[in-house]
Amino acid sequence: MDKRYERCQMLFGENFSKIQKGKVIILGVGGVGGHALDCLYRSGVQDITIVDFDRYDVTNKNRQIGSEATGEYKVEHLEKIYPGIKGINVKIDIEWVKNNDLSKYDLILDAIDDIKPKVELIKKYYKKMISSGGSAKKTDPTKIEYISLWKTTNDPFLRKIRTMLKKDKFDKNFKVIFNTEVPKIASKGSFVGVTGSFGLTMCSIAINRLINTN
Q1: How far apart are CA 183 and CA 54, in angstroms?
Q2: What does DSSP say about strands 86-89 and 23-27: parallel, antiparallel, or unpaired?
């Protein structure tokens, strides 16, 4: 066994092979998705695809893995940091969701913040998805929960998602990662203690799903 995974195998035992065989796609590799990627990669998942269209900006440096490479495309730089992953440099919009079949993946990790494609993804792949709500404007990671979308509070982003899904007659008991904390500010301020914790929570849920469903 590769020594780098020795501690993971100690913890997960025979289930570690299920983790290694998992086929995961991460949509959005910013403050949340980047930490989910790091966690999955270090935990032994062998087949990881990432999708993002953005370049690193200096304002990303407070929270995003790889953001020292200011100006580079995120997926291209992350492919260098995490050898073996597959990067797709494209903007995730409704057309992309409609024209790409993601059913081949065991899990779809949704860390995007564009409402319309997020709604489309949930409607189409809710059984395989692990989705993140808004992680900005908050400072307390101990208030992160993973519960039904319909029970979330203090998250204007998820409120919009709920409204659109209701209009489209979607009524499944879909769970999301969110933070119960009241937003501290109205702007886009962010803290890696929360955004990174969202990503690690997403990874943890994914690992346990791979163990229990494969």
Answers
A1: 26
A2: unpaired
**103 CB neighbour count, 10 Å cutoff:** 10
Is the pTM of the predicted complex or chain greater than 0.85?
A: yes
Q: Which domains does the chain have, with CATH numbers?
A: 14-132+192-213 (3.40.50.720)
Residue with tokens 């992160």: 144
Among 61, 67, 60, residue whose Cα is nearest residue 81: 67
Convert the pLDDT of each residue in 98-149 to its tens digit.
999 999 999 999 999 999 999 999 999 999 999 999 999 999 999 999 999 9
Tokens 């780098």 found at:
4
Between the CA of residue 186 and those of 141, 155, 182, 183, what are the distances in Å? Answer: 19, 12, 11, 7
Q: How far apart are alpha carbons 3 and 5 in whole angstroms?
A: 5
